[in-house]
Amino acid sequence: MPFGQRGGPAKGPHPIAIVNAQSRTLAKLVRQMKEGCKKDEEAKESTLCGLNPCLKCLQPDILYHLGLSTDTTDFPKVFGDVRFVCMGGTPGRMENFAYYVMQEIGLKINAATKLRNISEAGQRFSLFKVGPVLCASHGMGCPSISILLHELIKMMYHAKCKDPVFIRIGTSGGIGVEPGTVIITSEAIDGRLNPAHEILVHGVSVQHASQLDESLADEIKMCHDPCKDTYEAVIGRTLCAHDFYEGQSRLDGAFCEYTPEMKKTYLEQLQSQEVKNIEMESLAFAALTSRANIRGAVVCVAILNRLNGDQIKTPHEVLSKWEKRPQELVARYIRKSLYYNENDDDSEQPEDETEGAAAGTGAGAGDTQKAPAAEAE
Ligand code: R2B
Ligand code: URA
């Protein structure tokens, strides 16, 4: 049974068994945080597909923009336990997300220590690791996220990670949605509404399909609680533009060679085609993750409704609150996957609404469940 569903009368594992299984999962996460991934826990090969056959010959492989190299870092030991790779635009947001997700999955570090930016040496992106979760900043636009993804996918390959899930969390301009709404992308499309990421290789146009994992989008959507969450979460198409101004039909850029009527017609056409938002990275994200057979999702909050204007006038404090919404849904998804997913050998999921399942917190299987807590350092 997928984790968002609720069963009938009690017939699943006994609550104590669930608590024990969750405690074992947590103990393993804590040990891996302290000691790294053990040899016998490493997968024999990564589960990624379709990668460059020359990768195995690169000795060392230098992940230049991440400031990491296979000859100075033991990738299987340091990154072999990674199961979730979360990325967002700015270093600060991803550092905050790392601390937030740490709390949500029940891990702690000594109050006197800080999470280290693992890719500081590269001076381009920030990268934080919290147990099985990697948090990276990707900058703005497809070229930037594409460099990051090439290097993170190579990292997963060298670390022999098993079925990692990649998620982009970010902001976007909504199309006909209330500002503050969270949009989970069903499909990324370009400005011509074409579901493909186009790149030029040797001067020739190559198009890669930009589909995203439908079931992952549904699982993340199920982490939204329409009764408790004060905002909506919807699944819809996302237009990925290659700039913020003309590419998104704004009238407030330094240049503008179209009329307000042309903008209105274009945005209304998008709305009629079920496009819910516009951002700048989903095409490259969807294309590169699906080429590697990685399950991927894009979860963005709409910070304005583009049908009502172009400028972002919402106060900073409100924007900060809205930016946390995708983080909240994704952290719930990660927590559920770690502690309540029956498809996973390391975790147990209650098959009913038995209370007291979550490691002695007295919570049930819903979104309000807290993970057990343990200190890693
Ligand atoms: C959303 O916000 C950024 C532009 O302001 C861009 O990275 C995106 O996709
Ligand atoms: N990010 C975008 O790319 N567009 C918007 O309108 C808002 C955020």
Automatic annotation (TrEMBL):
Residues 342-355 have a biased composition (Acidic residues). GO terms for molecular function: uridine phosphorylase activity. It is an enzyme of class 2 (transferase). Residues 341-377 are annotated as: Disordered. Pfam families: PNP_UDP_1. Phosphate binds at residues 124, 168-171. InterPro entries: Nucleoside_phosphorylase_CS, Nucleoside_phosphorylase_d, Nucleoside_phosphorylase_sf, Uridine_phosphorylase_euk. Keywords: Glycosyltransferase, Transferase. GO terms for biological process: nucleotide catabolic process; UMP salvage; uridine catabolic process. It comes from the Eukaryota. It catalyses: uridine + phosphate = alpha-D-ribose 1-phosphate + uracil. Residues 84-335 form the Nucleoside phosphorylase domain. The keyword Glycosyltransferase applies. Pathway: Pyrimidine metabolism; UMP biosynthesis via salvage pathway; uracil from uridine (phosphorylase route): step 1/1. Its EC number is 2.4.2.3. One of its GO terms (cellular component) is cytosol. Substrate binds at residues 248, 250. PANTHER family: FI09636P-RELATED, URIDINE PHOSPHORYLASE. Catalyzes the reversible phosphorylytic cleavage of uridine to uracil and ribose-1-phosphate which can then be utilized as carbon and energy sources or in the rescue of pyrimidine bases for nucleotide synthesis. Shows broad substrate specificity and can also accept deoxyuridine and other analogous compounds. NCBIfam families: euk_UDPppase. Belongs to the PNP/UDP phosphorylase family. This is Uridine phosphorylase.
